[in-house]
Each structure stands twice: as C-alpha cells, then as structure tokens.
Design goal:
Chain A: This is ABC transporter ATP-binding protein. Chain A: InterPro entries: AAA+_ATPase, ABC_transporter-like_ATP-bd, ABC_transporter-like_CS, P-loop_NTPase. The structure holds two protein chains of two kinds. In chain A, strands 5-6-7-3-8-9 form a six-stranded mixed sheet, with helices on both faces. In chain A, strands 11-12-10-13 form a four-stranded antiparallel sheet, covered by helices on one side. A three-stranded antiparallel sheet of chain A has the order 2-1-4, with helices on one face. By secondary structure, chain A is an alpha/beta fold. Chain A is built from eleven helices and 13 strands. Chain B is mainly alpha-helical. Chain B has one domain. Helix content of chain B is about 75%, strand content about 0%. In chain B, α2 runs parallel beside α6. The chains are: A alpha/beta, B mainly alpha. Chains A and B meet through α1 and α3 of A and α1 and α5 of B.
Amino acid sequence: MADGQIVVSGLTKQFRRVRAVDNLSFTVEPGRVTGFLGPNGAGKTTTLRMLLGLVAPTAGNATIGGQHYADLPDSLRVVGAGLEAASFHKGRTGRDHLRVLCAAGGLPYQRADEALEMVGLTPAAKRKVKGYSLGMKQRLGIAAGMLGDPAVLIFDEPANGLDPEGIRWMRDLLSGFAKQGRTVLVSSHLLSEVQLFADDVVIIAAGKLIRQGRVSELTDADGMQRVRVRTPEPQKLLAELKAPGTAVQTEDDGALLVTGIPAAAVGHAALVAGVELHELSPQRADLERIFLELTSGKAGIR
Amino acid sequence: MNRIIRSEWLKVRSTNLWWLMLIGVLAFTAIAIAFNMLTGYVELNPGTNQGVPDVSPESIATNLYTSGQYFGTLLAMVFGILIFTNEFFHQTATATFLATPKRTRVIAGKLIVAVIVGVIIALITTVLAVPSGLGFLASQHVDTFLGNGDVLKSIGLNWLAFAIWAVFGLGLGALLRSQILAVIIGLVAMLIGQTVIQIGLGLMAHYFHADWLNKVPNWLPSGASTIMTSPGGANGIAWWAGALALLAYGVVAAVIGTVITRRRDIS
C-alpha cells in the first residue's frame, strides 16, 4: 500500500431521505494535487468527513495509507485537514486555537508558531478569531492542517473567500506540498480554481463519480480544436475557410471562432485570402464547459 | 490521556470563560458571606428578633464556612455544561475530533477538567468563606467550631458537591448537546424544578394516600445535593447516599451522552 494514498471504495451515505454519497470510488495519489470537484450539494463535504472519521458511512470504505482515520495512532502527524472556515471559537486567538490542537496531538507548542509563520498569520497570532477576515480564517485552517507536518493534506473549499492574491498563494502552497511528495486533496465547486491548482481531478455530482483523471487529459479528451481569429476583413477569410469539417462562429466582439482545423491551417487560409490578422489563438478546451456538460441535470437541490 | 487533559485545560484558559466564571464565583461567594453574616448576627443577638427559633451556633458556623455553595455549585454545573456544548456551539467539534479521533477520550478529558475546576471553585469559596467566617465569629465572641468534626465534614462535603455538580453538568451537556437547552434544564432542575415537583408529588401523595411519593424528591438532583452536604444526612438518608445519587445522575447522563457522541455524525 502506497504511503499516503487515499482509497475510497463503494462509499455511500444515506441521510434520512437523501443519498448524499452514492457508491463512490476513487483514489488519490501522493505527489500530486487532486481537485475534488462538484456542484454545491454534490456530496464533497460528506465524502471528506467520512474519510476523516467524522461521519459514519452507510456502506463502503475510505482509507488513508490503508488505515481508517479513527485508527491512526497520531492522526495529526499523518493527516492534516481543514474543513470549514467557520469552525473556530471566535473568542480564542489563532495561536491558542493551534496550541489546543498541538496539545491534543502531542506536538510541541512551537509548531503553532511555525504554522502561523508558514501561512503568514504571525502578525495576527494573538488576535481573537472574531477579528479575522474569511481569508485569514482560511489561512488559519491551513495552518491547523500543517501542525503535524503530515504526509496527507485534505482541505475543503480552501480558496473560498480568498482574494486573487490569496488564491495564487494557495496554489503555490499546495503545489509546493505536492512537490514534497505529499498527498493533497482539495475540494472546490469552482472549476476555474481546480484548473488553477490541481494536477488530477475527481468530479462528482449527486453523490456519484462522474469522472476521474488528469486535468490535462480531461481538457484534451474534449477533442475539439478551436481557433480564435480576428481580422478587419472577415468575409474574405470566411471564403477561404471552406475545408470539410470546418465550422465558423462569429463572436460578439467580431472575432471568428473556427472549429475543425488547426491554427496553422487558419493562418494559411489568411495568407491565401490576403487578409490582415489581428489575432490568431488556439483555444484550450474549456474545463468549465466540460464540467457543465458532464454534470448537467445532476446538480441542483436534492 | 495527558494530552487531552492539557488540551481541554488550554481550551478553558484561552477564552473568556475562565474569568467570567471567576468573577461569578467571587461575586456570589461575597454575597453569600454577607448574607450568612447578617442572618448569623440576627440569630446570635435574639434581642433584635422576636419569634425566630434559636439556631445552634454550630450550624451558623457551618453556614458561614460553606458560604457560596448554592450559587457556586450552580456555576460548577453550568461550567460542566459549557465545556461540552461549546464544541458544538462554536463548531470546534470538528477540529477536536480530528486531533483526537477517539471521542470517548475527549469526553473523559473534559470530565477530569470539570472535576478540577469544581475543586478550584470549592477552593476559592473556602478560602473566602472560612477566614471571613472565623473573623465574624470572633467578633461576636462565639466559638469558631473549627475543630468540630461535623463542621469540618461539612467543609469537605462542600468540596465534593462542587466536583459532583460539575460532573452532572458535563453529563447533561453531553446528553443534550444543545447549549441553551442544557443550561435551561440544568438550572430548572436545580432551582425551581425541585420545589415544583415536591409540591406536585406532595399533592399526589395526599390524593392517592401514597406516602412514598413524598420521599421521591430526596432522590432528585437537588434533593440529593441537600442530603449530601448535610454531615448527619437529612430526611433519614445518609450524606453518602445523597452523594451517590447525584453522582449517578451525572455518570448515567455522561455515559449515554458518550454513546450518542461516539455514533453521532459531526457535521
């Protein structure tokens, strides 16, 4: 069993009327950032809570390095987790929150200061959490996860409430963790986020697995090549773009979106037509669109 | 186990709870001392009160030395309730159970902290009540009774009361989980529930000619507490039976609360 590998198999959770997680199976590998993606209410948080022994599964299994979380002798040294930005006592300082966890996990108090330093919260260490912004609470949650210097990191929606700079910081931090060989599992309901910081992605909707794979595979598998091209004389260019299988759409800003031929072929067509080009850019398949297609009709309120 | 006790102790120390408790204990004890001195003065100087039955100086001394027991035990119980229900009220249960996945250990740690705090409250009230009581009795030229066995026993039982009420509160909190509900039920059980039930049972006993119903209130938490803190027992029941009854309430509530907490989904 690979150290730090997360294995979810046949995991199911039935709340009174709702099957929040339905026979879900996937694996998460060390050394990579895995995005756990799904619309709101897809069962992401319930899955993570089952993985962490907080919610009892109705059926199935979830293990970390081959063990159930509750059986880990020194849980904080093996797995670091941050689940909700709201789950702090508002009248306690950030530093004391971490110290309480250090004490429970058998870690020296010094780890609390080191973790605060790592997430850039040292100036706010002795302030009560009620004075923290959402972004600061997210950082405190990450710091809590880092206390035991664990091989596995699990964060639920860590980018919620972060500003663009914070999101970039988060991306660098997570990919840094993965480069050190740690397992990093991060949930999100926003594709743009996952696209930013994940290597792999597990997509679920309505509690079921939709797709698991590398982010790059997923976008390439879309197969549709699209090229965006802008010219002051679109009609002349259009006349040259007549190859079979080629389709052209006109965008709102007047640019043409060409499907079916590579960018080089579009450039050649422009040369033949003798038109001036202001833009010629191949478009990467948009994960957002794939995501919406994959999960359409499965999201929403259950 | 040491880890969890350290962690739970730090939880108490790192919020407003501890000094709010301290202020409460100091204030209520001061009020109780003043009240007991006043009644003691009235009772020791019969000239100022006609018709009040004579009270033994010994029981006046006991009262003084255990000043603050009534509200102090109440605070100990509320403290017990709060250290458990805070985890859910402030949603810190997630972090707590991630750090200590064995939930029974968490509750055991809280139980020990509750007992420690109960004893600390007892220590504070005793440190305030005994010297001030001694001073008062000396000023009234009355024996201090400090060498008296029953008086010393009362002081000891006073300490026991604080610890057991804290355990009772923790059990109640673990059982109900809702902070507001647990505090209300705890206070009602301690303050007015006893009287209401006593009157109700008294009426029923009269109506059904079932005399045993009159004995039931002795075994309710606050009745048991009264018996526990009387060195000679009360209503024909020994002090230790009262202590065991109150402890049983706390332990049963804590055990059921533990079973529920172990199974409960933390979300």
